[in-house]
Design brief:
This protein is an alpha/beta fold. The protein has a single domain, classed as TIM Barrel (Alpha-Beta Barrel), CATH 3.20.20. The chain is 42% helix and 16% strand. It has eleven helices and twelve strands. The strands form three sheets. Strands 1-2-3-4-5-8-9-10 form an eight-stranded parallel beta barrel, surrounded by eight helices. It has a two-stranded antiparallel ribbon with strand order 6-7. α3 links the parallel β2 and β3. α6 packs parallel to α7. It is globular and about 50 Å long. It binds 3-hydroxy-3-methylglutaryl-coenzyme A (HMG) and magnesium ion (MG). The site of 3-hydroxy-3-methylglutaryl-coenzyme A has 26 residues, from α4, α5 and β5.
Length: 318
């Protein structure tokens, strides 16, 4: 039997966080519901970050509340792991409040996030890498105390939009620090899609000296953005090295607002989208592995995601 690969769809979070228009909460909930039908193992539903920093995701509590309401769709039925980004104790508290309101661990995992680049970390979270790790200590304790798992993201594992190429040793150092803090999983983010098969493999080889990539287990996840159309070659390289957990985003939506750059003429170039979950799954299947995903249901979710984003960009959301 082919070996299993775990998939997380991050479109409701990474996919939507950089959208300038208003996407109604009910449409985000519908997207999550459609993702639940694809067979995906985890959905990263939202972030509990400052709404001043990421206005699009200021409705995280309402998204989770609506996911609990009885409705015509799949609400209330068994669902994949729901996770959410939390940058600090305040975000962790918001996640726990959602679970309290749901009378269960509706959110089973929280994700803390730092970077291998000091400049990016500062721009994204107003903290040095060391300060960001300090913030995570009580978050990890609170999450584990309530039975939640913790994912630790590292951004800029290949290159930084401000500092350029990042040494694999710098990534390994942060990965080790996250593991020492007690995270259950490290997620390596190629924030700007600078990865190639070669530099991704070099980075993974280096980090595996600190955080072994255990074949068949999901302690190591790869989070790719597909700026130059090379993400699927990175997936193949990672599979060869034993990585069995990947993030994708339906319709290839996504990008960190703090990885966007301003061009000399003043226009803002949006951060690149994630590898589309469809391409990710096809790449994995073609490489001889299996996933739980159904490509037809995935196409339906992708088409809905495209629709709500197009509507909000045209000013029709809300
Ligand atoms: P700060 O300004 O240093 O924090 O931001 P602060 O403690 O001074 O708080 C500022 C304001 O935010 C205060 O409100 C706080 O109450 C509030 P005010 O008093 O001014 O009205 N606040 C919060 N509100 C809601 N939820 C919270 C929270 N914390 C403080 N949790 C902070 C520090 C970390 C909060 C801020 O920098 C932030 O929210 N950053 C988030 C940035 C972000 O979400 N980026 C995108 C996600 S990361 C990503 O996309 C990369 C990834 O995909 C992997 C990859 O591709 O590389 C994961
Ligand atoms: Mg990302």
């Amino acid at each position: 039997m082919a070996e299993f690969v775990r998939i997380t769809d991050v479109s409701p979070r990474d996919g939507l966080q950089n959208e300038p228009g208003i996407i109604p909460t009910s449409e985000k909930v519908r997207l999550v519901e459609l993702l639940c039908r694809t067979g995906v193992d985890e959905v990263e539903v939202t972030s509990f970050v400052s709404a001043k920093w990421v206005p699009q995701l200021g409705d995280g509590e309402r998204v989770f509340a609506q996911l609990q309401e009885p409705g015509p769709s799949a609400r209330g039925l068994p669902h994949p792991v729901f996770s959410a980004l939390v940058p600090n104790e305040r975000g962790m508290q918001a996640a726990l409040d959602c679970n309290r309101a749901a009378h269960k661990n509706l959110i089973e995992k929280v994700s803390v996030f730092t970077a291998a680049s000091e400049t990016f970390c500062r721009k994204n979270t107003n903290a040095t890498i060391a300060e960001s790790l300090d913030r995570f200590r009580p978050v990890v304790a609170a999450a584990h105390g309530s039975g939640l798992k913790v994912r630790g993201y590292i951004s800029c594992v290949i290159a930084c939009p401000f500092e350029g190429p990042i040494a694999p040793e710098a990534v390994a150092r942060v990965a080790k620090q996250l593991m020492d803090l007690g995270v259950d999983e490290v997620d390596y983010g190629d924030t700007i899609g600078a990865g190639t098969a070669e530099n991704t493999a070099a980075m993974l080889r280096e980090v595996s000296r600190e955080v072994p990539i255990e074949k068949g287990r999901a302690a190591t996840t790869l989070h790719l953005h597909d700026t130059f159309g090379r993400a699927s070659e990175c997936v193949r390289a990672a599979l060869d090295l034993g990585v069995r957990s990947f993030d994708g985003s339906v319709a290839g939506l996504g990008g960190c607002p703090y990885a966007s750059s301003t061009l000399p003429d003043g226009t803002v170039r949006r951060a690149p989208g994630n590898i589309s979950t469809d391409l990710l799954v096809r790449t994995i299947h073609e490489a001889g592995y299996r996933t739980n995903l159904n490509l037809d249901s995935l196409a339906q979710a992708a088409s809905f995601a495209r629709e709500i984003v197009a509507k909000s960009r045209a000013g029709g959301g809300g």
